[in-house]
C-alpha cells in the first residue's frame, strides 16, 4: 500500500512537472497601437502552432511602455521576455549588452529579406538585436483636388520651396482649410522627430564631429524659420498642441491640404470608413533642398529579448512567428493587404497583391531614401535619422521640443528658441562628459 501511494505520488509529481514543463508562459510588453492590438488578436495562431507556450500580454501607452521596459532592461529585472522597442533604443541597448542577439533565428526566417535600411538600424557589430514588426519613414500626403484647384502639380520628389508655395496657395482659412499640417506638439518623438528630419535636408545637424551642439548655425536658423513661417501663414490654429493623432484627425476631416508625417498613416487616410477624403489623397517623397538629403525619418517598432529573460528559446519562437512572412499573409487573409504591417520585408514589396496598395511604392522609396548611418549632409559622430542614438538624447530633445513648440505658439522668436536649445544641449553634453 505504502509503495502504491508513493508510486502514485511520484506519478502525480511527474505529471505536475510535465504539465509545468509543457506550458511555459512568456510575458510580452507592447505599445497600444492598432497593429500590435491586431497581433494580440491573432495570438491563437501562434499558440496552436506552439502548444507548449502560453502568451501573457501587457499593453501600455507609448510613454509608459518606454519607462517600464527601460527600467526592466537596465536592471535585468526579467519582468518581460519580449519587449516592443524602437529603432532609438536598439543600438544603445545592444551595445550595453542588454539584449539577446537574434543571429540564430532559423534559416526559414530569411533575415536577408529584411529591408537593408531597417535591418541596418537594428544591427550592432554584425549582431541583429531586434526584429522589425513594422517599419516606417515619412512622406507627403496631399489632397489631389486642392492641389489641382490651386493650379499646381505635386512632383514625386518635391523641394521645400514647392511645399511652402503650395501650402500658401491651398490655404482657405474662411472655410477652415489649411495648406499644411505639421507636428507642433512638444516631444522628442513628436515635433522633434519632424524638425530633426527636416533639418537634415537644410544641411543642419545636432552635433559636429566633436559633439559640439549646432543650434547656433545658419542651417538650423533656416530650418526653424521656414517651419515657423509656413505654419503661421498656412497651418491650422493651435498647431503647437498638434501631434500625429491630432493632424490625422484634421486631415481625415478635410482640413489639411498637405500633411508630412509617418508613412504608416497612409492606410488610415485612404480608408473610406475613417477618412472623408479617402479618394482624394496623393503621396510624394518628403521634401529636400537639393543638398542630397530628404527630410524623411526612419523608424521601426521592433520585438527584442531582454538579457534578463529565463525563457529565451520560447521568446525567439514568438519573435520568429510575429515578424515572419507567414504572419504578413495571416493578416492579409484576415484584414486585407492594405492592413499588413508595412516596411519590413523586400518580399512584401515584390508581392503583386501588395503592389496594388496605392501607397506601397512610395512607402518603400521613402524608407530606402533614409540612411541612419549617414543621416546628414555634413559628417556626424552619431547614428540615427530623426534622433541621435545616445542615451542623453531623450532628455535634450524633450527640452528642445518644448522650446520650439513655444516658438510656434508665438511666445518667443526663432533666434531666442535656437539660443535656448543651444544652451540646454551644451549644458547636458558637458554634464555627460562629451565636451569640456
N-to-C order of helices and strands:
HEHHEHEHHEEEHHEHHHEHEEHHHHHHH
Work out the number of β strands.
10
Query: Cα distance, first to last residue?
Result: 81 Å
Helix content: 40-55%
Q: Would you state the CATH class of the largest domain?
A: Alpha Beta
Unreliable stretches covering 5 or more consecutive residues? 1-20
- Overall pLDDT, averaged? 93
Biggest sheet record: 8 strands, mixed
Please, what is the CATH homologous superfamily of the largest domain?
Answer: Periplasmic binding protein-like II
Strand residue percentage: 5-15%
Q: What name is given to the CATH topology of the largest domain?
A: D-Maltodextrin-Binding Protein, domain 2
**In the CATH hierarchy, what is the architecture of the largest domain at level 2?**
3-Layer(aba) Sandwich
Give me some keywords for this one.
single chain, 436 residues, D-Maltodextrin-Binding Protein, domain 2, 2 domains, two-stranded antiparallel sheet, 10 strands
Write up this protein.
The protein is α/β, with parallel strands linked by helices. It has two domains: 20-129 and 299-355, D-Maltodextrin-Binding Protein, domain 2, CATH 3.40.190; 137-297 and 376-431, 3-Layer(aba) Sandwich (D-Maltodextrin-Binding Protein, domain 2). It contains 19 helices and ten strands. The strands form two sheets. Strands 1, 2, 3, 6, 7, 8, 9 and 10 form an eight-stranded mixed beta sheet that branches. A two-stranded antiparallel sheet has the order 4-5. A hairpin with a 2-residue loop joins strand 4 (123-124) and strand 5 (127-128).
Amino acid at each position: 500500500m505504502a509503495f502504491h501511494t508513493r508510486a502514485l505520488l511520484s506519478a502525480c509529481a511527474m505529471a505536475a512537472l510535465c504539465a509545468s514543463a509543457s506550458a511555459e508562459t512568456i510575458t510580452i510588453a507592447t505599445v497600444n497601437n492598432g497593429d500590435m492590438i491586431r497581433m494580440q488578436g491573432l495570438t491563437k495562431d501562434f499558440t496552436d502552432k506552439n502548444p507548449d507556450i502560453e502568451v501573457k500580454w501587457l499593453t501600455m501607452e507609448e510613454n509608459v511602455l518606454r519607462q517600464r521596459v527601460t527600467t526592466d532592461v537596465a536592471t535585468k529585472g526579467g519582468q518581460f521576455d519580449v519587449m516592443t522597442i524602437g529603432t532609438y533604443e536598439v543600438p544603445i541597448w545592444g551595445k550595453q549588452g542588454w539584449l539577446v542577439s537574434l543571429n540564430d533565428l532559423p534559416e526559414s526566417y530569411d533575415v536577408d529579406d529584411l529591408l537593408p535600411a531597417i535591418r541596418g538600424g537594428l544591427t550592432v557589430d554584425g549582431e541583429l538585436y531586434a526584429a522589425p514588426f513594422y517599419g516606417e519613414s515619412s512622406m507627403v500626403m496631399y489632397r489631389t483636388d486642392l492641389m489641382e484647384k490651386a493650379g499646381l502639380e505635386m512632383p514625386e520628389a518635391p523641394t521645400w520651396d514647392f511645399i511652402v508655395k503650395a501650402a500658401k496657395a491651398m490655404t482657405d482659412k474662411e472655410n477652415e482649410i489649411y495648406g499644411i499640417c505639421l507636428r507642433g506638439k512638444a516631444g522628442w518623438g513628436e515635433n522633434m522627430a519632424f524638425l530633426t528630419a527636416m533639418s537634415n535636408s537644410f544641411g543642419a545637424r545636432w552635433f559636429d564631429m566633436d559633439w559640439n551642439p549646432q543650434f547656433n548655425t545658419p542651417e538650423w536658423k533656416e530650418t526653424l524659420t521656414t517651419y515657423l513661417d509656413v505654419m503661421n501663414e498656412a497651418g491650422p490654429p493651435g498647431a503647437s498642441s498638434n501631434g500625429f493623432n491630432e493632424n490625422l484627425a484634421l486631415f481625415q476631416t478635410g482640413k489639411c491640404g498637405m500633411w508630412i508625417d509617418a508613412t504608416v498613416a497612409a492606410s488610415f487616410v485612404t480608408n473610406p470608413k475613417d477618412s472623408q477624403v479617402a479618394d482624394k489623397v496623393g503621396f510624394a517623397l518628403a521634401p529636400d533642398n537639393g543638398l542630397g538629403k530628404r527630410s524623411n525619418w526612419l523608424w521601426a517598432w521592433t520585438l527584442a529579448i531582454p538579457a534578463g529573460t529565463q525563457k529565451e528559446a520560447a521568446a525567439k519562437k514568438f519573435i520568429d512567428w510575429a515578424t515572419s512572412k507567414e504572419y504578413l499573409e495571416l493578416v492579409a487573409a484576415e484584414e486585407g493587404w492594405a492592413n499588413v504591417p508595412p516596411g519590413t520585408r523586400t518580399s512584401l514589396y515584390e508581392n503583386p497583391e501588395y503592389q496594388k496598395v496605392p501607397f506601397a511604392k512610395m512607402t518603400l522609396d521613402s524608407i530606402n531614401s533614409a540612411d541612419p548611418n549617414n543621416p546628414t549632409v555634413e559628417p556626424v559622430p552619431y547614428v540615427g535619422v530623426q534622433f541621435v542614438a545616445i542615451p542623453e538624447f531623450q532628455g535634450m530633445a524633450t527640452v528642445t521640443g518644448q522650446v520650439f513648440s513655444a516658438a510656434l505658439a508665438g511666445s518667443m522668436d526663432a533666434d531666442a528658441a535656437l539660443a535656448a536649445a543651444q544652451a540646454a544641449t551644451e549644458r547636458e553634453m558637458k554634464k555627460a562628459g562629451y565636451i569640456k
